[in-house]
Design goal:
The chain has nine helices and two strands. 78% of the residues lie in helices and 3% in strands.
């Protein structure tokens, strides 16, 4: 327990510094987390006998580079070239089959691309973007907390017993409600203390999105772990597991929240 608490405190302090400072420090931190997450993802499937194609790391670096420098057209070209190279490898290689190709390519879309939304949001010129950034972390982690205690107190019906035996329908609903309530409370405090004029229903909607898709992200990661026969993705966080164990919910929540903000708010 002491190890878990110590790791959590250090991680939270680092996160506060990275988000507050922004710039190259935040971008480099997110890129490192994404590459480590990709390593954990590949490593999980390798334990299942999949022969992943390591060129995925190089492509991940390309994606982050063109994102940081806002090179949208280059991004499209790189994706097309990446697809061509991958399927050329599949066509001519005797060491890789179609499963190797799909797993290697999937690693770019999950978990790498969702991390990009964190950089896009932090680099947004909108003054409220840092508030939305913190909302993603606060409300997604609040979902986990409320879901845990709701499940302990009220849980009877299993949510996805084949994926995560301890999760219940009641706990899931409690997590969503908790995230929405926390979103509204955070909005009241933020708007009053820091003089932001963010419309109240944005806090509610973001809480709802984090409540649903944070749990979805956790279930996705759990299903992969069950398929690959592993308990944790890694050991980088003592007592907590790997990058994907800690950010599985965050990266899915951030993706949905980012698209909501781009379409309806910014």
């Amino acid at each position: 327990m002491i190890k878990r608490i110590t790791t959590a405190v250090i991680g939270i302090v680092y996160l506060i510094i990275a988000v507050h400072y922004g710039g190259w420090f935040f971008n480099l931190s997110v890129m490192a987390a994404a590459l480590l997450a990709l390593y954990e993802f590949y490593n999980a499937f390798q334990s299942k006998g999949v022969n992943v194609i390591k060129i995925g790391y190089l492509f991940a670096l390309f994606i982050f580079s063109i994102t940081i420098y806002n090179l949208t057209h280059l991004a499209i070209i790189c994706i097309v070239l990446f697809l061509i190279v991958y399927y050329m490898i599949f066509t001519f290689s005797k060491n890789h089959d179609i499963i190797d190709i799909f797993v290697s390519f999937t690693g770019i879309f999950y978990p790498v691309l969702p991390f990009i939304t964190l950089i896009k949001l932090r680099c947004s010129p909108e003054s409220e973007s840092i508030v939305y950034m913190w909302l993603i972390f606060i409300l997604t982690w609040s979902t986990d907390t409320f879901a845990f205690f709701s499940g302990k107190a009220l849980g009877k019906r299993k949510l996805c017993p084949d994926i995560s035996p301890n999760k219940t329908v009641e706990g899931s609903i409690g997590g969503i409600i908790g995230a929405v309530v926390m979103g509204i409370l955070t909005g009241i405090i933020t708007n009053n203390l820091f003089d932001y004029n963010i419309v109240w229903y944005n806090y509610l909607i973001i809480g709802f999105l984090c409540g649903i898709f944070g749990q979805t992200g956790d279930l996705i990661a759990s299903k992969i772990k069950r398929y690959c026969g592993i308990k944790d993705y890694g050991t980088i966080f003592p007592g907590h597991g790997g990058i994907l164990d800690r950010f599985d919910s965050i990266i899915v929540s951030s993706t949905l929240v980012y698209f909501y903000l781009v379409v309806f708010v910014f």
